[in-house]
Design goal:
This protein is 50% helix and 0% strand. It is built from ten helices and no strands.
Length: 248
Amino acid sequence: MVSGSGRKGRIAVRVACAAACALLAGTSAAQQDLAAKPVFTDGEIRIILSHGPWPALAQPDPSNRVSGKPDAIEFGTRLFFDQRLSAKGTVACASCHVPERNWQDNLRRGVGMSEVDRNTPTLMNVAASLWYGWDGASDSLWSQSLRPILDERELAATPRHVAQLVRNDEQLSCRYRKAFGAPPSPADDEAVLVDVGKALAAFQETLVSGRTPFDRFRDVLAGVERPSLGTYSEPAQRGLRIFIGKGG
C-alpha cells in the first residue's frame, strides 16, 4: 500500500519532468530558429535598401560657392590646422576636433581658451546634417564654422585678426585667391572672414566615414555589388531583421 505522501511525491516528479522536457523542447526550437538562415521578404528588402547607398552622392552646399571645389578644400585644410587663427596663436580647429579621436576630443567639455559649456561633437559625416551645433543654432556648415573662431572661450579671434592673417601670409593669400578667384579684400574684414568659414566648410564636407559590412550587404541586395562570403554574418542579418521589424 502506497502512502498518500508517496503518491504526491511521484506526481511532483512527473510534473517536474514534464516541465523540464517542455523547457528543453522550447529551447531547442528557439535554437533552431536562431540557427535558421534569415530570409528577407520583399518588404524588408525595400526597407534595407532605403538605408543607402553609402557614401551618399555629394551634394554641394548651395549657400557656399566653393563647396566641393578642390582649391577651397586645400585652403580650408590649411586653415583648420593653423593655430594662428586664434587670438593668441595657440589653438586651432584641430585642437578640439582631433583627427585621431574621430574629430572630437574625448573630453566631457571642450577646451579652447577656456572650458566651454558642452562637449566637442565629431565632424564625421557633418555634410549630411541640416542643423549645426548642439542646439541647432546654425543652418549652414560655413556659418557654424565662424562661431568658434569668434567665441572668446574658443579661438577668441576677431574678423580683423583673421582677415589680416590671410592677407599678410603669402601661402594663405595665394590659396585664398585660387579658391575664390580674387585676392582677399583689403578693406572688408567680414567678407574675408565669411570666406574663411566657407573654405573650412569645404574641407569638413570631405570627412565621410568608410563603408561597413552592412553597406556591402545592402548593395548586394540592390544588385550593384557581387556577393562575397563572410561579409555580413548570419547573426548580423538576424539582428537586422529585428532592427527593421519588431525592434522598431
